[in-house]
Amino acid sequence: MSIRRQLALYLGCLMVVILSGNLWLNIHNFKLHFEEQLQSRADETATTFALSLSHSAQTKDDATLKSMVDVIFDRGHFSLVKFESTQNGAIIERAATEPTDVPMWFQRWMKLQPGFAQTEVLDGWQQFGQLSLVVHNKTSYEELWQLVKAECAWFLLMTLLVVYSMRLLLNWLLQPLKQIEHLAEKLSLNQFVHIHDTPKSKEVYSLVQAMNHLSDRLQASFLAHGQTVQKLQYDAYHDNLTQVLNTKGWDQYLYDWMQHEQFAPGWIALLHLENLMLLNDQHGKAMLDELLSQLALQLKTDSALSHEHVGIARTSGGDFWLFSPDPLDSQFKNRIEAIHDSLKRLSLVQQYNAKFYFVAMPVHEPQEPASLKHQLDLLLQRSKAEQKSLLIGATESHPLTNWVEWQQRLNAALEDEAIQLFAQPLFDDTHNVIQKEVHCRLIEEGEEPLMAGYFWPMVDKLNLSQAFDRLVIRHWLRVFEQDESNPDKFTGKWVLNISGKSLNDPSFRQWFSEKLKPKQLQSLIIECSEYTLAHVTVKTQMWLHEMVGLGMRLSVDHVGTSGKSFGFLASFPIYQGKIERRYIRNIDQQKDSAFFVSGMIQVFQTQGALCFAEGVEQQAEIDVLTQLGIDGLMGFALGTPTPLDVPSASVMAHQIDQD
Q: Which residue among 78, 102, 345, 625 is least packed, with the fewest CB closer than 10 Å?
């Protein structure tokens, strides 16, 4: 039993005892009062009546005496009126008992003493008789019965008021204890909150302060643990000198990128520093490290690269690998040449005559990572043989490599709304579908819809991201409106990916705020990559807080890929996070990945956010993630994307206003 209930029980019993004692005392006083009234009436009446009877008793007028006794008795106040003459022994008596509606148990309980008076009838010093009166207590019982009922009703009313008031008072006084209990439950779930209401009691106030301090200390400890996990994971997959991917990180990046659902066209390159040993011998390791760092920095900041998705790695010595998503239009070679030229112009390259070879080739379709590496090695050998510092492999024929053709095709898709939405389910730890992530695919006439990985890089290059994001949202609104009329509708959350360019555009934010209704916002989760959140504007950040206040939720995916400390995520109203699939793949065999994922789960749960895993493809991965305490899972091992039935724009024109 809780302290509040125990106190309520004890205090309630105490108040009932006190009120019961007060009730008994009042009833006892009522009884004494009525008995005094009865006795007083008897005494007064006997004295007065005896004086009235003295003359008739002296003349021995029995008829008058009897008449006077009858008059007194017929008033109904007396149960006995008796006159006994001392001269002739005559007795005049009237006696009767009148019924009453008062219960017999009450009469037996109260036992009112009737008023009894006996006096002598005198004339001077001469005695004529004796008068006896007994006051009838019928009226007193009835009045006392009514008073006792009223007193009991008042007692019950006061008992209820006192008990209820005591309950409210205890709830108010002991509210901090309930908050402390709630705080302890949150701490057990690694959710660190504060008790903001200041208790009035000194002891409870000290306890609340101690619990708040404990919450702060545990939160700091878990955040420090998360930062340590992040650093260890970062070190495991990144080169210490250049802070780009190392061999292990590059292998995982390339493997994940070449997956069918993840793939986007682009070009892959290898930068090989030829005279590495000579430079080291001539100028020392410090200069060589500075040169390698300068090369890596140039690759990480070159404007010709899409840095949100680009992969850069240093695998050994002076070898740098690069994969850049690219529409592979007629100008992609010029972009590669621009990168090569910017590397040649580096100060240390020119100062120390560093010699390097830069080879690249386009990648139109997913290929085995080992095959890509082998082809680049062959290109490198050819580049050395031909003494060319830049060599680009032959471009394979592909139907969608022309810039103008892409622009025409994407504009036509926007005009015709030629997209199709797919939904991939996300499951909680009990295998229930709690969310559906919406994927956009481009409709191909006579072919399967083209996945976003193939056409979105060109959407980004042509600055059409905002237009496509609006189109996707309009299509989703149609799905949502259609689903509302379905009795078996999906009741979970919908997840939509929004590009950083759209979020940073004020006109898009205004359109979004006006377009979506509160009910739609409450069913929606906007998802952005960790890289996107790291580069949003302050106004975008404020807008996200505003939208979350209206019911929308914010999700961050590709966690662990931006290279930034997780601390920056604390400034966003994060509802959930998704760990990048590269850390999920073969997690049952990768202890460092399991350690990283465990740390991320704790970091998100510490902030009161959910933590999900994406890209789950094996049952062994599911088992490990479940043991680590993951909140949800998504991947082909659980469910593949399925098309959403979207009614045509003409059918829905009267329901959805066109942009």
A: 345
Range list for CATH 3.20.20.450 in the chain:
403-643
Is the Cα dihedral 239, 240, 244, 245 positive or negative?
Answer: positive
Rounded to whole angstroms, the maximal C-alpha distance in the chain is 168
Query: What pTM value is reported for the model?
Result: 0.58
CA–CA dist 305, 267 (Å, integer) = 11
Q: How far apart are CA 580 and CA 112, in angstroms?
A: 91
Helix axes 465-484 and 452-461, enclosed angle (nearest 10):
130
d(CA 495, CA 527): 6
Residue bearing tokens 């100062």: 351
Radius of gyration of the chain (CA): 48
**Which range has the top average pLDDT, 127-141, 554-568, 635-649?**
127-141
Assign 658 a pLDDT band (cuts: 50, 70, 90): very low
Instruction: Please name every residue paired with 436 in a beta bridge, in sequence order, or none if there are none.
Output: 425, 494
HEC readout, 465-519: HHHHHHHHHHHHHHHHHHHHCCCCCCCCEEEEECCHHHHCCHHHHHHHHHHCCHH
Closest CA to 605 of 234, 224, 229, 223: 223
**Rounded Cα distance, 489 and 491, in Å:** 6
CA distance 450 to 437: 17
Residues of the chain with CATH 3.30.70.270: 240-392
Q: Where does residue 417 fall: left (phi above 0), alpha (psi -120 to 50 degrees), or beta otherwise?
A: left
Express each pLDDT in 260-311 by its tens digit.
667 788 899 999 998 888 888 888 888 989 999 999 999 988 887 876 778 8
User: Which residues in 571-604 are b (16+ Cβ under 10 Å) and which e?
Assistant: ebebbbbbbbbbbbbebbebebbbbbbbbbbbbb
Q: Which stretches of 59-94 are DSSP H helices?
A: 62-74
Fold of 403-643: TIM Barrel (3.20.20)
Q: What pLDDT, on the 0 to 100 scale, is given for residue 654?
A: 36
DSSP 656: S
CATH superfamily membership of 240-392 = Reverse transcriptase/Diguanylate cyclase domain (3.30.70.270)
